[in-house]
Design a protein that fits this description.
Chain A: Component of the integrator complex, a multiprotein complex that terminates RNA polymerase II (Pol II) transcription in the promoter-proximal region of genes. The complex is a heterodimer of chains A (658) and B (825). Chain A is an alpha/beta fold and 658 residues long. Chain A has 17 helices and 33 strands. Chain A starts with a strand and ends with a strand. The chains are: A alpha/beta (658), B mainly alpha (825).
């Protein structure tokens, strides 16, 4: 069993598990942090961004000044943003049989894999995962495609040139493999390969293994996966949460008794408590509004935004913010808000029960109804007519490199009355803000990550007790900035196996058994004999029939009647090809008694030597060796068949015949 | 005894012994026992029994009842009653003649009945005996009746109340038996003690040698109570005899009953009998300090340090024990050890402390919280150890807080373990902040201030801080701001404070907008306190006015949470008093233009919750008292408007506070009321600014009398009392105003009096009409205000508590039950 690790990002995993004869890709995350190296794509012509000076080498050589621009001491690539794909060279991706998706954030690289690698398999995911994943992809494509960029920079990727660049461009890894965003056509094609599944549904893969999605409690339709055969069980835990937010709670019990548990997608901010962060978010939002400023919340169109809107629903009246407009701007805003209300079966119990009242599960419906929350596909069109300040704007993309957020950063960045509040933990807020410097607006960082923290992981592992844990290497040591925090790493026994990008792990796990069925008529013919209490044995002669990875013992075919009319000797002669049935032997040979028996039978000058596997009895006079091991005995003598037979009979006396 | 009670008693007693009639309410019986106690304490019990033979009959009837007919409550009542009567020697002998006492308390009595299994009965038996054991006769009775042996077994009773009472009675008996004997000869040997005392001591000795922890605990508890209560010389002999056994307990592994052992040693050490140095006691304490676990030694160390007289060496050892966990924290986090001090001498036992700290989260948290609480308790005491290692303690607390918020970066493996254990631990954070607050007391080194300010600011800033932690942090900030030392030669607020305030106010602003109401509330309270103390400080005023805090506080007057509104009212009242409210020219805030008075009056008139309205009346009273600018513009209008709103308020505290406002107003207009305390400093007489008749006319126009009369008949007693005091004051003040005395129109007076009478019976719908000063004065004089005052001074349940009422209640309940029985047929 092997694990191929195609992504080094612990929360955007992409691993391949080779288990029995199947090749299973676990998630298909896309690392978008590479976009931070690019200049933002402004929706409206930005003189500031246009006029940024080109970057030149220390010696004044300015051959890169078309590709690289400098802003407040940082250098950015002036081109369409590109993303860092999972490894494509480590394994032939056309051999992948299935892809299991755990949540909508972990499928963003899907079009790259399904459309460009010769992939012919099936993708499995839950319905909300697919629908919301589609929205995320659609938004991404829309953000990038609606701001066409004439030029494409590639010179800087040349290894010799990249060495000369300042950090972080200099240190960016595998820039040659970075790719532009996919198209909507590719998205549609990729999504058409997905087969929908429900929690606890058992899916047979070629009769070899069974895969089952389980609720992971992190997002709408998010799942962990169980991959099991008859005798082996691998759990894949990715992006799980034990907090009570909107999704169905995590199913922990089904993860028990795993041989291997692959653990990814823990919280990216282990020191931040989501409740405290939500409080911080609300306080800073109210403070800004009360001072007459605007609040910008760069976010994804689904996920934490639902919880934030719910908190604000409860908070705005008490904070006297009822008259402040909340705008949600995304090409998929409407779909996201509406989808959230229709996936009742995937929601937590409280929200599910609302549906029966009937009420919308999420209170943002009421916010929309009362005109407190308004949503628009983009800043163009209706929004510009309705726009009123001070206000709160939720919009993407959290990287601040594309999407409507770029416009608001340009618009509001100059006033210290305004605040940008970062709630998504995927991007470093300082790096995200770098191309907007100098910036007068206030920046608040309250990352809300509801995924498991290390205390919860430690409890989970105690509860489900897997034999082996496999996780990204980042989880096996404290975060670099807090090297003394030994509590911020996975602590379990035996210590977890860690992986990094482009590594292949042989999982510490031996397959010992295979299930074989015995046909009833064959089973009927068996006559077990009890050899010790509780254990009975029977000899079987049968034909092993293997098809579709299922093994069946069938009665052997009857031999063709021999032409001669010889009578059979025994009934058991039904079995063909078995000339003489040798008895089966069992038991062990007690060396001392065996030596005594040899002496009794006239052998002298006997020496016994202990070996690693058993004993050697030396009959020096007869120049003979008897090797006694756990599962074999050899008599080595020189061409003295009589002696061998005598010795053999002496040995057999100590064994049971069957 | 009251003749009416005497009349009711026989019927009451017969009800009690009638098995068909159950007394449902035993609180009645409890109250009656209290009453009998006062009766027996005031006079002769013997006479009482002779005058009321039904009482003795009750006792003997109880004994005559069939065991299954005895009600446990009545039996317990009778036992306690008998004990009460027998407390007087003559009455004891009287009851003994009829063998009544032996029947009740002897081995053949309830002790052997089935009903003994009810804890109330056992408790009544013990309490009866305790009342009885007041004289030598009683003591002999206890010895002869076998009661002491029964008490020994009751020490282990399943009911904790019974077990504790038994143990206390044993102590009482021991003390009583030693009372006469020991006074003459203090050095009396144990062997010459009275038999009863010897028996108890022998039992204690045997228990101390027992192998069961429960028995040892019982013996230690008896001894603890003995040394706590009895301070006669014989206790010294007793300790001399028992101390080796107690010391021997320390040889066991593990030491049994450690809690009780600690209590005993501290009880002995506190006894004045041992004021002179008793080496064995101190040695035992010292041994205990060194052999128990850190969790167990904490209370002993604290108790030792609180002692008035104690050898210096032992004090040092105890202080060392108390400081050990903090020393370990400092060492593990590799803080600079600082100047040689107490913390360096505590290496002994340190490994045990470190083990506890590192063993588990709960052990670590428990030990640190206990240590911090003990040190917090010790700090303000006059006998706290000297030198007090202030700097190291502050450093230790700061590092603990840093471990809790994850900002500490220790390099040692222990430090890292601690970091993981304490990260995000709210309990320890709260305890540390509490202690940090008290550490300002006696702090002389102002060098510590920056690091304390830094950690407090971090705690306040951290989104991870819970509301309770924030509250504690605010309190600690207040302590450090208001009490922190300033370097010599530095005037005003000290060098660090202005900078700190500039950083603090943005954080305060954020907390005023918190979605958690507890946080908004704590922030407002903090603001109130700070501006109360520092409203006059230029630095503070400057920073506050430059911030949005006043504006945000104003907005919180409309907060949905009533507690927050109340705190906002108080805060705004305070800010406004100091001239610190938000500038009224800020555009876009119409409420600012309306003025704070208008806003507060709005709250007073429409707020649905009591707390904000109470806060408003308190603020208004304070404003009036301090001649707030908005009030002095037109005081009469202000007071009249407030009263108009307050008079109909449903909350009695608001109405009472309204009367307080009137009181302040009257004091300002008519002069201070005469001090009721003869030793109070006489204030210079303030001459009323206007002639009295005019003042009275104004008061009438302001409808102050209307308000006060209405309040006089208020259904809430405190309001009525306050109104009565107020009217009395007004009547006394208007006494010299003879010119008005006879001027009233008698028909007006009669109509007012008639209305007031109707008010008194609850018909307050009718208005009093426009009052003339003459009519008011006449009405005031005709009212028996003094009588009303004394009636109001009695508690509201004084009628219900009278013995007649109680007896009647019992009888009435029975009568009602009988009726119900008849109904059933």
């Amino acid at each position: 069993m092997k694990l191929y690790c195609l992504s080094g990002h612990p929360t955007l995993p992409c691993n391949i598990l080779k288990f029995k004869s199947t090749t299973i890709m676990l998630d298909c995350g896309l690392d978008m942090t590479s976009a931070l190296n690019f200049l933002p794509l402004p929706l409206v012509q930005s003189p500031r961004l246009c006029n940024l000076p080109g970057w030149s080498l220390k010696d004044g050589n300015a051959f890169l000044d078309k590709e690289l621009k400098e802003c407040s001491g940082h250098v950015f690539v002036d081109s369409v943003p590109e993303f860092c794909l999972p490894e494509t060279e480590l394994i032939d991706l056309s051999t992948v049989d299935v892809i299991l998706i755990s949540n909508y954030h972990c499928m963003m690289a899907l079009p790259y894999i399904t459309e460009h690698t010769g992939f012919t398999g099936t993708v499995y995911a839950t319905e909300p995962t697919v629908q919301i994943g589609r929205l995320l992809m659609e938004e991404l494509v829309n953000f990038i495609e609606r701001v066409p960029k004439a030029q494409s920079a590639s010179l800087w990727k040349n290894k010799d040139i990249q060495r000369l660049l300042p950090s972080p461009l200099k240190d960016a890894v595998e820039v040659s493999t970075w790719r532009r965003c996919y198209t909507m056509q590719e998205v549609n094609s990729a999504l058409s390969k997905i087969q929908l599944v429900g929690y606890s549904q058992k899916i047979e893969l070629f009769g070899v293994v069974q895969v089952t999605p389980l609720s992971s409690g992190y997002a709408l339709g998010s799942s962990n996966w169980i991959i099991q055969s008859h005798y082996e069980k691998v759990s894949y835990v990715s992006g799980s949460s034990l907090l009570t937010t909107h999704p169905q709670p995590m199913d922990q019990a089904s993860l028990k008794n795993s041989d291997v548990l692959v653990l990814t997608g823990l919280t990216q901010i282990p020191t931040a408590n989501p409740d405290g962060m939500v409080g911080e978010f609300c306080s800073n939002l109210a403070l800004t509004i009360r001072n007459g400023g605007n609040v910008l919340v760069p976010c994804y169109p689904s996920g934490v935004i639902y919880d934030l809107l719910e908190c604000l629903y409860q908070y705005i009246d008490s904070a006297g913010l009822s008259s402040v407009p909340f705008y949600f701007i995304s090409p998929v805003a409407n779909s996201s808000l509406e989808f959230s209300q229709i996936f009742a079966e995937w929601l937590c119990h409280n929200k599910q029960s609302k549906v029966y009242l009937p009420e919308p599960p999420f209170p943002h419906a009421e916010l929309i109804q009362t005109n407190k929350l308004k949503h628009y596909p983009s800043i163009h069109g209706d929004f510009s007519n309705d726009f009123r300040q001070p206000c709160v704007v939720f919009t993407g993309h959290p990287s601040l490199r594309f999407g409507d957020v770029v416009h608001f950063m340009e618009l509001w960045g100059k006033s210290s009355l305004n605040t940008v509040i970062f709630t998504e933990p995927d991007f470093s807020y300082l790096e995200a803000l770098a191309p907007y410097q100098p910036l007068a607006m206030k920046c608040i960082y309250c990352p809300i990550d509801t995924r498991l923290n290390f205390i919860q992981v430690s409890k989970l592992l105690k509860e489900v007790q897997p034999l082996h844990v496999v996780c990204p290497e980042q989880y096996t040591q404290p975060p670099p900035a807090q090297s003394h925090r030994m509590d911020l790493m996975i602590d379990c026994q035996p210590p977890p196996m860690s992986y990094r990008r482009a590594e292949v792990l042989a999982l510490p796990f031996k397959r010992r058994y295979e299930k074989i069925e015995i046909m009833p008529e064959l089973a009927d013919s068996l006559v077990p004999m009890e050899i010790k209490p509780g254990i009975s044995l029977a000899t079987v002669s049968a034909v092993l029939h293997t098809k579709d990875n299922k093994h069946v013992l069938q009665p052997p075919p009857r031999p063709a009647q021999p032409a001669s009319g010889k009578k059979r000797k025994r009934m058991s002669d039904d079995v063909p090809d078995c000339k003489v049935l040798k008895p089966l032997l069992s038991g062990s040979i007690p060396v001392e008694q065996f030596v005594q028996s040899l002496e009794k039978h006239g052998f002298s000058d006997i020496k016994v030597e202990d070996t690693a596997k058993g004993h050697i009895v030396l009959l020096q006079e007869a120049e003979t060796l008897i090797q006694i091991e756990e599962d074999s005995t050899h008599i080595i003598c020189d061409n003295d068949e009589m002696l061998r037979v005598r010795l053999r009979d002496l040995v057999l006396k100590f064994l049971q015949k069957f | 005894m009251d003749p009416e009670c005497s009349r009711l008693l026989p019927a009451f007693c017969s009800v009690l012994v009638d098995p068909r009639q159950a007394v449902a309410d035993d609180t009645c019986l409890e109250k009656l026992l209290d009453w009998f106690k006062t009766v027996t304490e005031a006079g002769s019990s013997l006479l009482l029994l002779q005058e009321n033979p039904c009482l003795v009959d009750l006792l003997s009837h109880v004994l005559d009842l069939k065991p299954q007919d005895v009600s446990p409550r009545v039996l317990s009542f009778s036992l306690r009653l008998a004990g009460m009567f027998a407390a007087q020697e003559d009455c004891f002998e009287y009851l003994q003649q009829g063998q009544l006492l032996l029947g009740l308390f002897g081995e053949a009595g309830p002790l052997s009945w089935a009903v003994w299994s009810v804890p109330t009965v056992r408790s009544g038996w013990i309490q009866g005996l305790k009342s009885l054991a007041q004289h030598p006769g009683g003591l002999h009775f206890l010895g002869d009746s076998g009661a002491v042996d029964a008490l020994f077994s009751l020490q282990g009773d399943s009911s904790l109340f019974v077990a504790s009472a038994a143990s206390q009675l044993l102590v009482h008996v021991l003390a009583l038996s030693m009372q006469d004997k020991a006074e003459g000869s203090p050095s009396l040997k144990g062997s010459a003690w009275p038999a009863c005392a010897q028996k108890i001591v022998a039992h204690v000795e045997a228990s101390l040698c027992s192998t069961t922890a429960l028995q040892i605990t019982q013996a230690l508890n008896v001894l603890t109570t003995t040394f706590g209560r009895c301070h006669s010389p014989w206790t010294e002999v007793l300790w001399g005899q028992l101390s080796p056994l107690v010391a021997h307990l320390l040889d066991s592994e593990p030491v049994p009953a450690t809690h009780s052992l600690v209590d005993l040693l501290l009880s002995v050490a506190r006894s004045p009998v041992f004021a002179s140095a008793d080496c064995t006691l101190w040695e035992t304490i010292a041994r205990m300090l060194s052999c128990l676990s850190p969790m167990q030694t904490g209370p002993l160390a604290l108790g030792t340090l609180k002692l008035q007289h104690c050898p210096q060496a032992l004090r040092s050892q105890a202080f060392g024990v108390l400081l050990q966990p903090l020393a370990c924290i400092l060492r593990a986090t590799a803080q600079a050890p600082g100047p040689p001090g107490l913390l360096d001498e505590t290496t002994q036992g340190c490994s045990m402390t470190v083990d506890t700290l590192l063993s588990s989260k709960s052990a670590c948290v428990g030990l640190l919280c206990q240590t911090l609480a003990h040190l917090e308790e010790l700090q303000p005491l006059p006998q706290h150890p000297l030198p007090w290692p202030q700097t190291l303690l502050v450093e230790a607390v700061v590092i603990i807080l840093r471990l809790c918020d994850g900002s500490a970066a220790p390099s040692s493996s222990e430090g890292c373990r601690l970091c993981g254990t304490l990260a995000g631990c709210i309990r320890v954070q709260r305890a540390a902040l509490g202690f940090l607050g008290t550490l300002t007391l006696g702090t002389s080194s102002w060098e510590l201030v920056p690091q304390v300010f830094a950690i407090l600011l971090e705690t306040l800033k951290s989104p991870a801080s819970s509301p309770t932690v924030l509250k504690k942090a605010f309190q600690a900030v207040l302590h450090w701001l208001l009490d922190s030392p300033t370097p010599p030669g530095c005037s005003d607020l000290g060098p660090h404070t202005p900078l700190f305030l500039r950083e603090l106010f943005p954080v305060l602003q954020k907390h005023l907008c918190s979605p958690c109401w507890e946080v908004r509330d704590s922030a407002l309270e903090f603001l109130t306190h700070l501006s109360m103390c520092w409203g006059g400080e230029a630095n503070f005023r400057e920073v506050l006015l430059a911030s949005d805090v006043p504006k945000l506080a104003w907005q919180l007057l409309r907060d949905p949470e009533s507690y927050v509104r109340a705190s906002a009212v108080t805060a705004m009242g305070q800010l406004s008093s100091q001239g610190l409210q938000a500038a009224s020219d800020s555009p876009g805030h119409p409420e600012v233009q309306q003025g704070l008075v208008g806003e507060l009056l709005h709250i007073l008139s429409v707020d649905s919750e009591g707390f904000p309205r109470r806060a408003v009346t308190r603020v208004f009273t304070e404003w009036l008292r301090n001649s707030h600018a908005d009030v002095v513009q037109d005081t009469e209008w202000f007071v009249a408007t407030v009263l108009q709103m307050v008079s109909r308020d449903l909350d009695w505290e608001v109405r009472a506070q309204g009367l307080e406002l009137v009181q302040v107003f009257l004091a300002q207009t008519l002069g201070q009321p005469n001090p009721s305390c003869p030793y109070a400093v006489a204030l210079p007489k303030v001459t009323p600014p206007s002639p009295l008749p005019e003042v009275l006319r104004t008061l009438c126009q302001m409808q102050i009398f209307d308000f006060a009369f209405r309040a006089l008949f208020d259904c809430d007693r405190p309001v009525a009392q306050k109104a009565c005091d107020l009217l009395l004051f007004l009547r006394n003040k208007s006494a010299p105003c003879s010119g008005l005395q006879e001027a009233g129109d008698s028909s007006d007076v009669a109509s007012v009096e008639a209305t007031l009478e109707r008010w008194q019976v609850g018909e307050q719908g009718q208005p009093l009409g426009s009052l003339e000063p003459e009519v008011v004065l006449a009405a005031l004089r005709s009212m028996d205000l003094e009588g009303l005052q004394s009636r109001l001074a009695e508690s509201s349940d004084h009628v219900e508590k009278s013995p007649q009422s109680l007896l009647q209640d019992v009888l009435a309940t029975v009568a009602l039950l009988e009726e119900n029985v008849a109904d059933c047929y």
